[in-house]
Amino acid sequence: MPVRPALASALGAAALLCAAVGPAGAAPAAPSETVTVDATGKLASDGTVTLSGTYRCTAGTGPVFVSSSISQGDARVRYGIGGSGAQCDGAEHHWKNSGKPGDETLKTGKAHVQATLMELKPTDTGLIGNLPLPAFHATADRDVSLAKQ
C-alpha cells in the first residue's frame, strides 16, 4: 500500500478513535492550545471532502496531528476525513485535511465537523513497553456548510 493512503487511513482511524474515546475523559486543554474549523467545507465532484481551520499548541513531545471527522444527517455516524501533522511551537498554524468518506456520498449543504488536536505520547505500561496513547490538546465542533469545490 502506498505511504500516503496508509497514513490517511491511520489518521482517519485516529480521528474515529478520538471521536469514540474523545476528550470527555481528557484533561482540559491549556488556554493557549486551540483548534478551529472553518465555516465552509469543500466537496469535489468525486466525493472528496476538504476541511480546514487553524490550530495552536505548545507542549508536543510526541507526534501531533489534527484529525477531522464529518457527519451529515445522522449525528451518530461520523466519517474520518484525513489528518495532518501539527507543529507545537506556540504559533497559530493552518490545517487542511482531505479524504473520501468510504462508499458514503455526502451532499452539499449543512454538515457537522469535529476537529481534534491530538498527540501520540509513548507511555510505559510495563506490559508492552512504550505504547503510544492519545493525549488531547484541543477539540472543536462546528456546523459547517459543505459547498461544491
UniProtKB/TrEMBL annotation:
| Record-given protein name | DUF6299 domain-containing protein
Instruction: Specify whether Signal is a keyword of the entry.
Output: yes
InterPro entries under this entry? DUF6299
Give the signal peptide, or none.
Answer: 1-26
Keywords of the record, alphabetical order, are:
Signal
Query: What does the organism's lineage look like at the top?
Result: Bacteria, Bacillati, Actinomycetota, Actinomycetes, Kitasatosporales
Domain DUF6299 residues, every copy: 31-148
